[in-house]
């Protein structure tokens, strides 16, 4: 299993092997002890799946506050996405910084987004299917969003930072300045 830490080292890329044969492939997409060894130690309690039909859909930037803060282990099982984590932990040396990675059906990479980070992604293909494990359950009252293209964060979205297919909620999300104090280290 390949493990890489990104420029914000709490954000981890994990690529489990795929064993191919004439039938197709087999892959352990999650293995508790192995992922714990890789640094992903919080137990998961919810699995999610989304389908974005169009290329250029952006979902995010999202998080949940305590007592339902979520870490997310994200993978793309159809198509490709550019996945992003933004450090929102006041007191962190990388507060307000972002990291991103392309994850796809093809590269089979998963990204670990710890609690205290905003999470979002841009679809790079049509029919992008994303599956992710969460360390806490959905709690509507704890949900928060930040606008995807806030220049203060400056995410370099591969398809550009001006146009995106967004949910109504994400279109009116506040700037990153609203997130000050949501999390601390
Ligand atoms: C996130 C979530 C949504 N829902 C419902 C609420 C709503 O009716 C519908 C669609 O929700 P949303 O528009 O928030 O879905 P979406 O924009 O895909 O939200 C997701 O975005 C990515 C980037 C994340 O990181 C996730 O944690 C989550 O916030 O699904 C649940 O029932 N459970 C959940 O865990």
Automatic annotation (TrEMBL):
One term of GO molecular function: dTDP-4-dehydrorhamnose 3,5-epimerase activity
Sites marked Participates in a stacking interaction with the thymidine ring of dTDP-4-oxo-6-deoxyglucose: 138
Classification via InterPro entries: RmlC-like, RmlC-like_jellyroll, RmlC_Cupin_sf
Residue stretches in coiled coil: none
Classification via SUPFAM superfamilies: RmlC-like cupins
Reactions this protein catalyses: dTDP-4-dehydro-6-deoxy-alpha-D-glucose = dTDP-4-dehydro-beta-L-rhamnose
Pfam family, one: dTDP_sugar_isom
Signal peptide interval: none
EC numbers, comma separated: 5.1.3.13
Keywords: Isomerase
UniProt xrefs under Gene3D superfamilies: Jelly Rolls (2.60.120.10)
Annotated pathway: Carbohydrate biosynthesis; dTDP-L-rhamnose biosynthesis
Record-stated family: Belongs to the dTDP-4-dehydrorhamnose 3,5-epimerase family.
Entry function: Catalyzes the epimerization of the C3' and C5'positions of dTDP-6-deoxy-D-xylo-4-hexulose, forming dTDP-6-deoxy-L-lyxo-4-hexulose.
Alphabetized NCBIfam families for the sequence: rmlC
Assembly information from the UniProt record: Homodimer.
Protein name per the record: dTDP-4-dehydrorhamnose 3,5-epimerase
Native organism: Endobacter medicaginis
Lineage of the organism: Bacteria, Pseudomonadati, Pseudomonadota, Alphaproteobacteria, Acetobacterales
């Amino acid at each position: 299993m390949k493990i890489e830490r990104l420029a914000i080292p709490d954000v981890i890329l994990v690529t489990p092997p795929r064993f191919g044969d004439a039938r197709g492939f087999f892959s352990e997409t999650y293995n508790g002890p192995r992922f714990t060894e890789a640094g992903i130690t919080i137990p998961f309690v919810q699995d999610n799946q989304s389908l974005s039909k169009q290329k250029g859909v952006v979902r995010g930037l999202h998080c949940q506050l305590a007592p339902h803060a979520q870490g997310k282990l994200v993978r793309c099982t159809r198509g490709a996405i550019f996945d992003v984590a933004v450090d929102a932990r006041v007191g962190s040396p990388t507060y307000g910084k972002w990291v991103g990675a392309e994850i796809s059906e093809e590269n089979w990479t998963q990204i670990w987004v710890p609690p205290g980070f905003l999470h979002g992604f841009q679809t790079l293909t049509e029919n992008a299917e994303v599956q992710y494990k969460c360390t806490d359950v959905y709690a509507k009252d704890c949900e928060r969003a930040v606008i995807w293209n806030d220049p203060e964060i400056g995410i370099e979205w591969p398809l550009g930072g001006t146009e995106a297919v967004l949910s109504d909620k994400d279109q009116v999300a506040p700037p990153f300045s609203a997130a000050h104090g949501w999390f601390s280290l």
